[in-house]
């Protein structure tokens, strides 16, 4: 159905942009970042290379747009976990499991979020905003755990959220990239151990 205030030209431009992004995402999934070239995207989306420049920009702009989509996909995983019922411990465990699932099921997107192209400050800020949004939800869980008497009162929720994310992200990055002995282990096995260490520290002497 035709949308009010839109022309056939603007609808065609939007459709081209969507086709370009879908093509880039498919290439990333199948071959990693190296597979996402302007020529390959143009062929898969059935558009001219110039159309890519007109609708999105060069390769870095495409990768940034794909990174934004990856973050939104990650947010879908995480939001579902944050809505888990139960106490703060259960919600924190669900959040860690969701982030692990995202990393293992979408390894290329996971890697891209850790190292997005940065030639467009506005889009980079949008990615940073999405990260801050997710960390704020993690902070809320940590706050709730203190209020529920599960964890020590001197645990700074904001700092703890940043450190917890960095620790889990780092462990998963090593596992996904195969740069440690973790590549030989099932994340389903080492994730509970990591959480056990974290929760033990959070539940230390309640000063």
TrEMBL record:
Residues 14-74 form the HTH tetR-type domain. The keyword Transcription applies. Pfam families: TetR_C_33, TetR_N. InterPro entries: Homeodomain-like_sf, HTH-type_TetR-like_transc_reg, HTH_TetR, MT1864/Rv1816-like_C, Tet_transcr_reg_TetR-rel_C_sf. This is TetR/AcrR family transcriptional regulator. GO terms for molecular function: DNA-binding transcription factor activity; transcription cis-regulatory region binding. Keywords: DNA-binding, Transcription, Transcription regulation. SUPFAM superfamilies: Homeodomain-like, Tetracyclin repressor-like, C-terminal domain. Residues 37-56 bind DNA.
